[in-house]
Amino acid sequence: MEQKLGKNQQFFIVTLRVLIGWHLLYEGVAKLYNPSWTAKGYLLSAEGPFGAIFTYMAKSDFLLQLIDVVNVWGLMLAGLALILGLFDKYAAILGALLTFSYYLAHPPLVGTESVPGEGNVIFVNKNLIEAVALGLLSVFPSGHIIGLNRFIVWRRKKMVLDN
Amino acid sequence: MNKMSDQDKKGISRRDILKGLATAPVLGAFWWSASAKGDHDTEIKKGILNELDIKAMNPPTTGSMKGDVIKLGIIGAGGRGIHLMRTAGYATPQWLDDMKENARKNPNDTRLKSFLEQEDLNVRFTAVCDVFDVHMERAYGAAETDDNKPIRYVDYQDLLADPNVDAVIIATPDHTHAPIALDAVRAGKHVYVEKCMTHKIGETLELEEAVNNSSVVFQVGHQHRQTLSFLTAQDAINKNVLGHVSLVQTNTNRNDDAGAWQYNLHPEANEKTIDWKRFLGPAPDLPFSREQFSRWRKWWVFGTGLSGDLLTHDFDRINCVLKMGLPSSVMASGGIYSHRDGREVPDVLQVSMEFPEFSTGSSREKGLEKGMTFLYSATLGNGFNRGTLLMGHDATMELGESLSIYADYNSTRYKDLLEKGVIDTSTPMYGYNPQSEGVDGVTSATAKYFAEKGLLYTYRDGKRVDSAFLHIREWLSCIRHGGTPSCSIKEGMEEAISSHMATLSYKTGKQVLWDDKARKVVIPGMEGADLDAIITDSKLLPEAPIV
After folding, report:
1. With an 8 Å Cβ cutoff, is B23 touching chain A?
2. Which domain does B210 fall in, by range?
3. Inter-residue contact B56 to B402 (CB < 8 Å)
4. pLDDT band at B540, cuts 50/70/90?
């Protein structure tokens, strides 16, 4: 069952959830409204131990189209759900998978090239931190406290009661 | 199961509703922020693009390749000749095997795939001509099909007399371009001739007259005219995006032996396999030299040096964009500083061409701006990539396979946009890159040099296309449907004369003038001198023995 959280814990967990949700939603929306956006460049320039897998994906038209769609809609859905606190546990898992895959495609290793605008990073970058923060949100879901999940929880309880 | 509270039993409370919907207003804020940013970005982008109004250009579509087969003869089947044959659809069996092997080893190598997918130009090579047996057989192997057994000719005159040849591709050493092209035009054959179109001045004017008085379709092999970024650059110039261009800077930087024409000597090249007399053609009667046969670009009697070989590329690229025509004067200097291997032609060369009457347009008061210098700077001893720059009062264009335009800090036209901070001088206000993904299969340093300059490949619908293919296709289309190719005799004449002027200035140390009224090259103080003799003169004696 859902954890009990203290007031301060609630505040920061929910704030983190909404802020990350905002970020993911805008990443998705910006891609949706940029008709020339594609993950191709990011994938083709992938580096590190999994670089070849990402490069392979970019070269298949079918996979690339799928990846583009999954990215845009995955980011928007996860972002929206996190902001609203609806199925936020699953949204956090989806977001964590997406951001972790961005990390794996361009991990800031000793010998890899840094992605423009990333700042100074080694091994740990913002993608990794966001992925882990989303992991945290998935094990501390808060939609049932502040969020639409509260209604679902209420309905479930009511149904149990009615039966 | 949790114990239900009284509240739960009653139904949803106001507290539930508040807490359940607490974060929903964030969406409103998000909506507002995202739309505000979207509108702002669109406005800026639209503002700049409307101001510049440059159209990413597609070349005029050339006609269909259907109909009668065009029967081609290849004259000169060395490296370039074989490449052009392949471009026209006929690869040597050796090349096909090599590419199969390469594609097997490296799945990213798509050269074979591109070749096989290339459009059929509906041509066949009915005749092949070369003075070197090995090259002749190689060309024959590429041209031969089940229903086409080409005829081998050692003498190009015999090939030109063959009624079964409609058109010829000439890819011989520079010193024979004009004589062969002239004879071909007189024989009524359409001509595709490699650059530099000619070797000397007299024959250039003679060829110009002959082509103008004939009905043959004439194309000089400056294939970069098909490059998309150059066509887009033309539109930017037409719209006066750069303002008055006062200086154009072009460069060649190469740092490898092949790039300096120090090719490997062919192991089978000898007096028995080479018809040396026919190789010499109009050149003086020199003794047989394996090295001069393979590395003819190093000697003035055969080659045109940096000016004819590489300056012509840059001159024609800019002439394609600006259409500035012939310079009124040329100064050049340089030397042999990196490859003291017995060559006569310089490996470092700077050429400055003046166009005092030319202007790309102006954004300032009338009469203030007129005239332009075209600067060419080359070294075969350093490979640093210096961009091609067109420098205008309002903006600078960096031109290669992609195209970037930077506003100038003191521009008249973009003053408002600069002050408002809509554009700044360090990031391109216009960028055009027809290449949507990484260049594949470009291997040698020399090939990269050409690719970076937009000379090798161009992109159509995001797909890489060999620009030589499009250039040959344009020539064939004009043969089939009429019209004048983009690099015909006028452009070829301008390319050749300007490069010979550069060579003359390098060799005499004097300023060389073009007298447009008399249509002749003049060197003040040297009136009456035989300029063609100066061009081919090998005054600089080789310091290393010729192999």
Report:
1. yes
2. 70-225
3. no
4. very low
